[in-house]
From TrEMBL:
It comes from Streptomyces smaragdinus. SUPFAM superfamilies: P-loop containing nucleoside triphosphate hydrolases (SSF52540). Residues 13-250 form the ABC transporter domain. It comes from the Bacteria. SMART domains: AAA. One of its GO terms (cellular component) is plasma membrane. GO terms for molecular function: ATP binding; ATP hydrolysis activity; transmembrane transporter activity. Keywords: ATP-binding, Nucleotide-binding, Transport. PROSITE patterns: ABC_TRANSPORTER_1 (PS00211), ABC_TRANSPORTER_2 (PS50893). This is Putative ABC transporter ATP-binding protein.
Length: 255
């Protein structure tokens, strides 16, 4: 069992000795209890663990959506704790992409407008060739002028995936991206995330409860009680499920 992973210099994102404490005194919770983990560039990494093990907290702190109590979080070589609010906002905008369980598309905008919205808000044009290629990767070429309400859930999440990658971020963080999808649409979105990583050399870090979803990743990192307890390369759903049974014999995580 590996309790600390070597920190690769090629990590797109990483945390070192990460501690996150919520509350104080009797209500204190150590959501992260000294985690060191790197998310390698050009790889698809899944974060798994029982409910309450710290998956979302790790993702939020690694992505600059929340701050650590102690330790450090880096995107590339940039330490997030060293940035003031303005520079942190710019880093989140320019170097990080997000995909959430709720697709968070703007209903009045077309698919094309939703994909380029973050760039438009930033007053940037982006790389038109990259965005054009992305539209093919996510398979939305014939839906560009539709509104989100005219799309299936899976198609909407594909728009959200394209939007997350549109600005060529260093890393895309996905929090339960298939949580609102039926299994076939979920498989499509997971296949898409994997394909985007393989075909374009981008980096994805995904939090999931689902061993089948985790099996799409190149590597799975396992958390328990706010600690990193294992890593698994070339995962299969069966091996991930077995590992999860050891970590969470009661199966206390949500389905
Ligand atoms: N804002 C908060 N205030 C207080 N405690 C929190 C807060 N956010 C998370 N926690 C606690 O921190 C611990 C880790 O929570 P976290 O959401 O990171 O776990 P998780 O593995 O993502 O769980 P789940 O799989 O249920 O989403 C839990 O005990 C949780 O109750």
């Amino acid at each position: 069992m590996t309790t600390s992973a070597p920190v690769l210099t090629s990590a797109a994102a990483r945390v070192t000795d990460a501690v996150k404490v919520y509350g104080s005194g009797d209500t204190e919770v150590r959501a992260l209890d000294g985690i060191t983990v790197g998310f390698p560039a050009a790889r698809f990494t899944a974060i798994m663990g029982p409910s309450g093990s710290g998956k979302s907290t790790l993702m939020h702190c690694a992505a600059g959506l929340d701050t650590l109590t102690s330790g450090a979080a880096y995107i590339g070589d940039t330490e997030l704790g060293a940035l003031d609010d303005r520079r942190l906002t710019l880093l989140r905008r320019d170097r990080v992409g997000f995909v959430f369980q709720a697709f968070n598309l703007l209903p009045t905008l077309t698919v094309a407008e939703n994909i380029t919205l973050p760039l438009d808000l930033a007053g940037e044009r982006g790389d038109p060739e990259w965005i054009d290629a992305l539209i093919d990767v996510v398979g939305l070429r014939d839906r560009l002028h539709h509104r989100p309400s005219e799309l299936s859930g899976g198609q909407q999440q594909r728009v959200a995936v394209a939007r997350a990658f549109a600005g060529s971020p260093d890393v895309v963080f996905a929090d339960e991206p298939t949580g609102n999808l039926d299994s076939r649409s979920g498989q499509e979105v997971l296949g898409l995330l994997g394909r985007t990583v393989r075909e374009t050399g981008r980096t994805v870090v995904m939090v999931t409860h689902d061993p089948v979803a985790a099996a799409h990743a190149d590597e799975v990192v396992f958390l328990a009680d706010g600690r990193l307890v294992d890593r698994m390369t070339a995962p299969s759903a069966e091996r991930v499920l077995d590992r999860m049974k050891d970590l969470d014999p009661g199966g206390g995580h949500r389905p």
